[in-house]
C-alpha cells in the first residue's frame, strides 16, 4: 500500500500487484469516492504514474541521443582497434567479412564493452526517471490525495455514510467528481475531475482531469474511453446545475511520450492545446525534450426549455 490511511471504515481491496480474486463474482460496477474507497483512490493514481515511468524509460532508452552515443562509442573503439585488410574484396560484403575474420577478438571485445556501457547508461537513465516520478508520487501521497480530489483521503476514510451526508455540499460534490470502476470487488480504473477556477468563467465551465487510468492489463480494453465519456457527462451535469453558459471544456495533462493516451484523446475529440518541457528535471526536459502536453475538448450544453 502506498499510503498509510486510518482504517475505521473497511477498505475495498486495493492491492495492485496481486491478481484479481477468481472466487469473487465476475461483476463490474462503478462507485464515487466513498470512505471505503479511500485506500484505492490513493494507490491507483500512484500506479498510473508508475506506468508512465515505464513508458518514460522506454522513451529514454530508444532516444536518438542515447542511440547515437552508443553508436559513437562502438564505432570509435572499432576504428582504433581493428586492422584493415590490404587486399580488398570485389564486394562490400566480402570486404566486411575479411575485416571480421581479421578482428574477431576486437569485434567481440567491442560488443562486450558496448553492452556494458549501454547497461550503465540505461541504469543511469532509469534512476533519473525514478527520481522524477518518485517526487510526483510522493506529492500525491503526502497530500493524502487532496491535490487530486480536493479532499483529504485520511479524513474521509474514517467517516460513516451518515457523516458524509452531513458534510457541506462542496465536500460531497468533490466525492461525486470521482468515478471508480470495480471488477471482481477490486478497483481497476479511476477518473477524477475538478473545476478549473483559473480558466472557468460565468459563461464557460472548464473542468480539469486530475487523474485518469486503469490497471495495465485493461488499458486497451476501452475502459479509458469509458472514463472520458463519464467525465463529459459529469461536466454537463455540473454545467447544467450551475450558472454557466452553454460552452464547456475538459482539459487533460499528459506526457509527450504517452502515445496510447494521445490516440484515445484524439478519438474522443480532444486536441492538443499547448505543450511545455518539464521544468522539474532539467535532464529529462532539456536534453531529452520530454514535455507535458495539455489536451482539451470543447462542447456545448443545450438546456431544455421549461
From TrEMBL:
According to its UniProt entry, this protein's organism is Candida glabrata (strain ATCC 2001 / BCRC 20586 / JCM 3761 / NBRC 0622 / NRRL Y-65 / CBS 138) (Yeast)
Per the UniProt record, one Pfam family is Pho86
One example of a Gene Ontology biological process annotation: protein folding
Q: Which residues cross the membrane?
A: 60-80, 107-125
Any one of the GO CC terms: endoplasmic reticulum
Q: What is the lineage of its organism?
A: Eukaryota, Fungi, Dikarya, Ascomycota, Saccharomycotina
Provide any one GO MF term from the record.
unfolded protein binding
UniProt-recorded name of the protein: Inorganic phosphate transporter PHO86
Q: List, alphabetically, the InterPro entries matched.
A: Pho86
Which keywords does this Swiss-Prot/TrEMBL entry list?
Answer: Membrane, Transmembrane, Transmembrane helix
Amino acid at each position: 500500500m502506498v499510503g498509510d490511511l486510518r482504517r475505521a471504515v473497511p477498505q475495498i481491496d486495493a492491492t495492485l500487484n496481486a491478481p484479481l480474486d477468481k472466487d469473487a463474482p465476475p461483476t463490474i460496477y462503478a462507485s464515487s469516492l466513498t470512505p471505503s474507497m479511500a485506500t484505492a483512490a490513493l494507490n491507483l493514481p500512484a500506479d498510473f504514474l508508475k506506468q508512465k515511468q515505464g513508458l518514460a524509460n522506454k522513451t529514454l532508452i530508444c532516444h536518438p541521443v542515447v542511440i547515437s552515443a552508443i553508436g559513437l562509442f562502438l564505432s570509435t573503439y572499432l576504428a582504433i582497434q581493428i586492422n584493415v585488410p590490404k587486399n580488398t574484396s570485389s564486394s562490400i560484403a566480402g570486404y566486411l567479412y575479411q575485416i571480421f575474420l581479421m578482428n574477431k577478438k576486437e569485434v567481440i571485445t567491442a560488443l562486450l564493452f558496448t553492452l556494458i556501457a549501454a547497461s550503465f547508461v540505461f541504469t543511469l537513465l532509469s534512476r533519473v526517471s525514478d527520481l522524477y516520478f518518485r517526487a510526483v508520487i510522493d506529492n500525491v501521497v503526502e497530500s493524502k490525495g487532496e491535490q487530486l480530489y480536493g479532499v483529504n483521503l485520511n479524513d474521509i476514510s474514517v467517516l460513516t455514510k451518515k457523516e458524509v451526508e452531513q458534510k457541506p455540499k462542496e465536500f460531497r460534490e468533490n466525492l461525486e467528481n470521482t468515478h471508480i470502476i470495480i471488477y471482481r470487488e477490486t478497483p481497476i480504473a479511476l477518473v477524477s475531475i475538478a473545476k478549473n477556477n483559473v480558466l472557468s468563467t460565468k459563461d464557460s465551465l472548464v473542468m480539469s482531469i486530475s487523474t485518469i487510468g486503469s490497471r495495465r492489463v485493461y488499458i486497451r480494453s476501452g475502459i479509458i474511453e469509458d472514463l472520458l465519456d463519464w467525465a463529459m457527462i459529469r461536466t454537463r451535469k455540473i454545467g447544467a446545475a450551475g450558472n454557466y453558459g452553454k460552452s464547456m471544456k475538459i482539459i487533460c495533462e499528459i506526457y509527450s511520450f504517452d502515445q496510447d493516451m494521445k490516440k484515445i484523446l484524439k478519438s474522443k475529440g480532444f486536441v492538443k492545446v499547448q505543450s511545455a518541457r518539464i521544468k522539474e528535471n532539467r535532464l529529462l526536459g532539456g536534453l531529452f525534450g520530454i514535455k507535458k502536453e495539455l489536451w482539451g475538448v470543447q462542447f456545448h450544453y443545450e438546456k431544455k426549455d421549461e
